[in-house]
Amino acid sequence: MLTGKFFTIVSQQQPDAQSVHTVIAWNAAHPIFEGHFPDQPVVPGVCMMQTIQELLSAAVGKDLLVEKASNMKFLNMIDPRQAPQVTVEITWTPDEAAYKTTAVIKHEATVFLKFQGRFK
């Protein structure tokens, strides 16, 4: 799990029963950044997806995994020194035994990741 080590939750709002907006702070001193990349830290894409997975799992109260990523766009790199806090907006719809999910990771007007898919 990345929560509490790679990132911490600063604040969280649940605008309705099927969405959550979370402000997180990256741990720029985390060892991941020593290899990704020295002197130019970048949040790995897999860590962005794991962050979404962990926040969604906590919101619905179930351990979930990505079942399908129908649309995933990495639009900008996240340097934890330049964007030490980001907002993760997640919306879901229960669909059979899964959750149809839309997520965005952003800081102000800069969007880093857009995701559409299913978690099960």
TrEMBL record:
Transmembrane segments: none
Stored InterPro entries: ApeI-like (IPR054545), HotDog_dom_sf (IPR029069)
N-terminal signal peptide: none
Pfam families, A to Z: ApeI-like (PF22818)
Protein name per Swiss-Prot or TrEMBL: 3-hydroxyacyl-ACP dehydratase
Every ApeI dehydratase-like domain range: 13-101
Single GO molecular function: lyase activity
